[in-house]
Design brief:
alpha/beta, Isopropylmalate Dehydrogenase, eleven-stranded mixed sheet
Length: 347
């Protein structure tokens, strides 16, 4: 699989993105296309003795989409940016997937404008894979559409089931609709309208309304919600994990006796940190666009970028967009009636 890399994206730019991406070479990714400013990218490639230069290609992109720029216009105004050119490589078939740790809103709007949607998909969804007690679960949408129509959430569920089966290896993933209670009477107007639509999807293992407390338990593989709620839920969990980690570190080093115990527990504590670390996931797939696009965290370190490249290659190898198109067509879900507020890509 040929994966295009936004070498200029993320908090650390090519100094981290280039060596991290090379780590994924020889695994899922067979060829890397580094898109960025020549002097910066080549400098960091030349410093890597382990890099197979025959399978590392450079594509010039003089401009950078900055994090402060407006998502809806940045890629259009900068067609020579590393982000725009990387997405165009996928659209032209020169790359099988694209990874960026840059401006997530710009990646989403740029992917829609350059690559386009999978036929039959009305809005794409940004997905995160969560660590749980029993493996991994998926949460979507994370902000691609903050105020969606009910029909969009049905398509999110169909896309997530397809991804879960083919990429994550879950044969019959359970799908829950995120709500403020499990009862059918709970939820806002959107939840009330989506519930019967999901129940009507043929072959879907839909279990009904679920509460946020279930997100990390591992009993449910897919959680579907609107982009606003999903984004708030994800950032709340990230903040809670960070605070709990800091509290644990403080408490285990508070006394000499606890420090001694902490040394004995170090392997277990490291394993806990690994299970909760977002870098193990790599990046968030943008499902519903007609290509493999992975949005990595802006603060991603080497392991996260390498895993994002692996995910991009794996998603492309499974031909997820084509499989989503087939799944949407097979479900025969009718579009929602026109509404005054259909939701816009998250900026």
């Amino acid at each position: 699989m040929r994966v295009a890399i936004d070498a200029m994206g993320g908090d650390f730019g090519p100094s981290l993105v280039v060596p991290a991406s090379v780590k994924a070479l020889n695994e899922e990714a067979s060829h890397l296309l580094f898109v960025g400013q020549r002097s910066e990218v080549i400098k960091h490639l030349d410093a890597l003795e382990s890099a197979d230069r025959a399978r590392c290609e450079f594509i010039e992109a003089p401009d950078i989409v900055e994090m402060s720029e407006h998502a809806a216009t940045s890629v259009r105004k900068k067609p020579r940016s590393s982000m725009a050119i990387g997405l165009k490589l996928v659209e032209d078939g020169q790359a099988d997937g694209f990874v960026s740790a840059g401006h997530s809103g710009a990646v989403m709007t740029g992917a829609l404008a350059i690559i386009g949607r999978v036929p039959g998909v009305e809005r794409p969804a940004l997905v995160t894979v969560l660590p749980t007690l029993r493996g991994r679960s998926m949460l979507l949408d994370l902000g691609a559409t903050t105020d969606p129509r009910p029909h969009y959430l049905v398509q999110y569920a169909i896309m997530a089931v397809t991804y879960s089966r083919l990429v994550m290896g879950v044969a019959n993933p359970r799908v829950g609709l995120l709500s403020n209670g499990e009862e059918r009477t709970k939820g806002n107007q959107l939840v009330q309208e989506v519930l019967p639509l999901l129940e009507a999807v043929p072959g879907m293992n839909f279990i009904g309304n679920v509460e946020a407390k279930e997100l990390l338990r591992g009993d449910i593989e897919i959680f579907v919600t609107d982009g606003f709620t999903g984004n708030v839920a994800l950032k709340s969990m990230e903040g809670a994990v960070s605070v709990l980690t800091d509290i644990l570190r403080e408490e285990v080093t508070r006394t000499p006796f606890r420090k001694a115990l902490a040394l004995l527990m170090r392997p277990a504590l490291r394993q806990v940190r690994t299970r909760l670390d977002y870098e193990e996931i790599g990046g968030a797939p943008l499902l519903g666009v007609n290509g493999s696009v992975i949005v990595a965290h802006g603060r991603s370190r080497e392991r996260a970028i390498a895993n994002a490249v692996r995910v991009a290659a794996r998603t492309a190898a499974q031909e997820i967009p084509a499989e989503i198109e087939r799944a949407i067509r097979s479900a025969s879900v009718a579009p929602s009636p026109p509404a005054s507020s259909a939701g816009l890509p998250h900026a």
